[in-house]
Amino acid sequence: MKDLFIGIDFSKLKFDVSFFELGQMDKIHHCEFTNEKEGFILLLKWIASLSKIKPEDWLFCGEHTGLYCVGLTESLLKKKLFIWLENPLRIKRSSGLKREKSDKRDSLEIAEYAYRYQDRARVYELPEKSFEELQLLLSFRERLTKNKVSLEISCSEMRRVHQRNPTARFIYEQSQSDIARIGKEIETIEKKMLEIIESSSALKENYELVTSVKGIGIINALTIIIHTRNFTCFGNSRQYSCYGGMAPFKNSSGSSLNKGNHVSKLANKQIKTLLTQAARSAVLYDKDLRIYYQRKIAEGKHKNVALNNVRNKLLHRIFAVVRNKILYQENYISPLAC
After folding, report:
1. How would you list the strands of the sheet with 14-21, edge to edge?
2. Residue 147: beta bridge partners?
3. What residues contact residue 138 under an 8 Å CB cut-off, 6+ apart?
4. pLDDT at position 126, please?
5. 35-68 confidence digits (pLDDT tens)
6. Three-state secondary structure along 108-127?
7. 73: part of which helix (H) or strand (E)?
């Protein structure tokens, strides 16, 4: 049970802070700080000057905004303070109707959220250095891949339309040079990621288990390992499927609404896209999944629905091999079935 609730609204250059003490929600303090080391120090001094509550009874809460919340979070954790980073959508949906939108108001709503749902509070755990490096490299690879695809599409279309234009030919040749360069950079990044995997026995073991499943390549395997923190923050494949927007949910209400089961739009779309590619590959090269996919189509299922079923099958296999510490085997017969 905490006695002081601190809401933090992060942005690129600054962060807004509002706090109140237990039983004194009408007495709210607010201030703005620079999002750098000096601002972190001033924040703690400011709170201490306005409240006599001990730091161990403080509850910091902020939205998980990626890079912008990293500096302060690391600083607070080093001082053994309780910092809770929550999904921004949860905070947004808990605040009800809003007539005012400002950084000050947002920080107060986060403080109120921390007070209301303090029983859900969990101290944020910093990822291991290897995870952080993998995440940075994977994000960089994604940006390079988008640039490469953009160049490929634009230069090929320009060449098709302006076939005899010498300037267009020059731009096409320069674009091809850039595409080749980016391709080499992507290869270098992938090698660097594999080196990080090789340096950790735990990461290496799970990487080999995941890639033993047909259809799962290096990028899918690394993405799954990063988002599950090496299979420590998702209990089963269903939970991860929900996170990726691939788990079907019932959508019905009374007698006027019965739409059957549908996947939710609240999802990590990057994961969903990558697993779609994996599912298409598995349908081509995995006999069992190809038969399964064709059977679903024959039953009248839409192709996207059948493909989503394959995605979930792949996730079941991935979590199973990691749980059992056994490489995926075709035609595997469980000892329980004997």
Report:
1. 24-34, 14-21, 4-10, 58-63, 83-86
2. none
3. 193, 219, 222, 223, 226
4. 85
5. 999 999 999 999 999 999 999 999 999 999 888 9
6. HHHHHHHHHCHHHCCCCCCC
7. helix 70-78
